[in-house]
Design brief:
The structure is a single chain. Helices cover 52% and strands 2% of the residues. The chain is mainly α and 313 residues long. It has a two-stranded antiparallel sheet. Helix 6 runs antiparallel to helix 7 and helix 7 runs antiparallel to helix 8. The radius of gyration is 48 Å and the shape is extended. The termini are far apart.
């Protein structure tokens, strides 16, 4: 009897262990790798348990797939994205992420199809246009890549900035796409397409412009009037305002006394009284400058024709 009970217990244990192993085999691979003490893994576990109960929406399933993808399980992420599309076939973000996951696995054909399905539902998707252009550039299709880059930068100009989109540095054609986009915008801005009746256009526009905000009124401080109490209370005096300290003045700059000018020439003779001096060794008449320094600063003084004739005679 005891032997039968022991065999029965062993059989039950084996059956239970087999059921547990089978249940674990049904779970995706990423579930077995989740750590119990990691907040990110606990978030994934919470989303996954609710997904098993069909409690997640399509967008929440996309977020779960994104978490699983960054956890390092792109195949499991693809399955979750496809579940999201089963709930909402118009969810273009799921197709875009499928393209990214396939692109990261170097599944070029699957990635291109996913990108194209995303753009079919949302042609102006900036990120999808950029990565489809990057894929076409990797395949050597430069003309197609430029078209996708231009569309991407048209709808999302910030994607051409490496600080916002570091993947730009992986492309050799982005600079050409940016130049073509710049040339197109400059061409459109320079078009001579002015209004034929600008005054009428401005009058109509002014009717729909909001009125300017009112100017704030200047508020004046109430005067502090001295109020005397009938019971003989002291009069309230206004608070003393702090006075600005006078700025220190620089002492006046002392100017050294000027030396008396040194006489430059002897007492003028008869010919010099007329205003001409013949003391120059070069034969050029000179006239002293008044109030000069110790050095003799002389400038040429050209007499009139009559005075020159008088000197020659």
């Amino acid at each position: 009897m005891r032997a039968r009970i022991g065999v029965f217990c062993v059989a039950v244990g084996i059956f239970s262990l087999t059921a547990v192993v089978a249940a674990r085999a049904e779970d995706p691979k990423f579930v077995r790798w989740l750590a119990a003490d990691d907040p990110g893994d606990e978030t994934i576990r919470d989303y996954w348990e609710r997904a098993e109960q069909d409690e997640l929406t399509a967008t929440e399933l996309v977020d779960l797939g994104t978490m699983v993808f960054y956890r390092g399980f792109p195949k499991d992420a693809l399955q979750i994205y496809k579940r999201a599309l089963d709930l909402d076939p118009e969810l273009y973000e799921a197709w875009f992420r499928i393209g990214l996951a396939e692109h990261s696995r170097n599944e070029i054909d699957n990635a291109r199809q996913a990108y194209q399905k995303c753009l079919k539902k949302r042609p102006g998707h900036g990120w999808c246009n950029f990565y489809l252009g990057l894929l076409e550039e990797q395949l050597g299709h430069s003309s197609n890549a430029l078209l996708y880059y231009e569309t991407s930068f048209k709808h999302a100009p910030q994607l051409s900035d490496p600080r916002y989109n570091p993947a730009v540095l992986s492309s050799k054609l982005v600079l050409g796409a940016r130049l073509r986009d710049y040339d197109q915008r400059r061409f459109e801005a320079a078009l001579p397409m002015s209004y034929l009746q600008p005054k009428k256009v401005n009058r109509v526009r002014q009717k729909y412009e909001p009125p300017p905000p009112p100017m704030p009124k200047a508020t004046t401080a109430p005067k502090n009037e001295a109020r005397s109490s009938s019971e003989g209370s002291p009069t309230k005096q206004p608070a003393a305002q702090p006075t600005a300290e006078p700025k220190p003045q620089k002492p006046p700059r002392s100017i050294p006394a000027r030396r008396a000018p040194t006489p430059l020439a002897p007492t003028p003779t008869g010919a010099e009284k007329s205003g001409v001096s013949t003391g120059s060794s070069a034969g050029i008449p000179v006239k002293p400058i008044g109030n000069t320094s110790d050095e003799a600063h002389l400038v040429p003084w050209w007499p009139s024709l009559s005075q020159t004739a008088l000197v020659l005679v």
